[in-house]
Amino acid sequence: xxxxxxxxxxxxxxxxxxxxxxxxxxxxxxxxxxxxxxxxxxxxxxxxxxxxxxxxxxxxxxxxxxxxxxxxxxxxxxxxxxxxxxxxxxxxxxxxxxxxxxxxxxxxxxxxxxxxxxxxxxxxxxxxxxxxxxxxxxxxxxxxxxxxxxxxxxxxxxxxxxxxxxxxxxxxxxxxxxxxxxxxxxxxxxxxxxxxxxxxxxxxxxxxxxxxxxxxxxxxxxxxxxxxxxxxxxxxxxxxxxxxxxxxxxxxxxxxxxxxxxxxxxxxxxxxxxxxxxxxxxxxxxxxxxxxxxxxxxxxxxxxxxxxxxxxxxxxxxxxxxxxxxxxxxxxxxxxxxxxxxxxxxxxxxxxxxxxxxxxxxxxxxxxxxxxxxxxxxxxxxxxxxxxxxxxxxxxxxxxxxxxxxxxxxxxxxxxxxxxxxxxxxxxxxxxxxxxxxxxxxx
Length: 443
Known about the structure:
Belongs to the amidase family. 37% of the residues lie in helices and 16% in strands. It is α/β, with parallel strands linked by helices. The chain has an eleven-stranded mixed β-sheet with strand order 1-3-2-4-6-5-10-11-9-7-8, with helices on both faces. A hairpin with a 2-residue loop joins β10 (389-398) and β11 (401-409). The chain is globular, with a radius of gyration of 20 Å.
């Protein structure tokens, strides 16, 4: 598929006419006048859900119904303009697709856009739509949000319906969304999180704000600046007594005993990775492979589809994997959820880097890329394994590359987290600017 330079190669299909509600009360609906796009993992009636691979598209029929999340947004008055490109079978955080082309990252055109929700993130970053839908299993909303310099939320696991969405690994699959401003990010949350709204929608003061210093030390440079930005912003809005630095890796190691099974997989050099979080990532990836195999082994082995480099090895490794230690992986999930719930309480926050550095260059050498991926999954596995909600927040650019941080909150505290992000967003950017992190137009 040839890329349209004006559309940054983001789309698989443009809907003509666009999908919208037929409500006679259109002007009264909360998302009236807004446009959105959806990752090609969501069912849309009359269209084949392509799952990022042409062989998948050729061996599956058109959807007979539209995913409930898409219908909810249409019913709220938004207009859906198309389906976006994604990584094959949602099994990457890079955003490169050998079959359909790699969407161009509007924030750094020589860098990957991040996956697997690459086209959805690019469509928002390039201002082609107001917001978009993606999915996040291992990091597929949070990573492209960070790489493309926009906001993105991975909601609490299980709070947004995943029916009508092709499964990757059900223990981790979530429906997330992208936007350029926190007001809209929260407005979409009010539509998709309705059954999980609390009376605390407008509560924006955290009881504690924990900064995971060990995670920030994974960054190749400038990590002190990001901690300084967080300190100043939290002190200004909530007071210094709210804030504390924490070694999250040590806490996880102490409070999640089942991780000992995987600790030998962790890096011994703390500068390369955090051993307990590397072990957490190992547990996440083992369980993800196990569920992917259950979902898709029959199709992969029967069709023998063509996959791109890197993806092919990863997918076949999953298909041929054993069920060793799967029970332990489930124990890790349960223990981590309990440990972080105890640590944060109802309205605590933990801040981490979304990813361990700027987006890698296109076609980065595989060994270098794998080292980066390992660090990334250590960070991403905290919310992924616990099921907690996480929002990636862009701060601006440094050396012409996007910079972000993430805030995590307890499972089910999604609206609280979205309200907090709305209240802290502008202060974070102001303090980031003061330490040399510039708005994109100034870098």
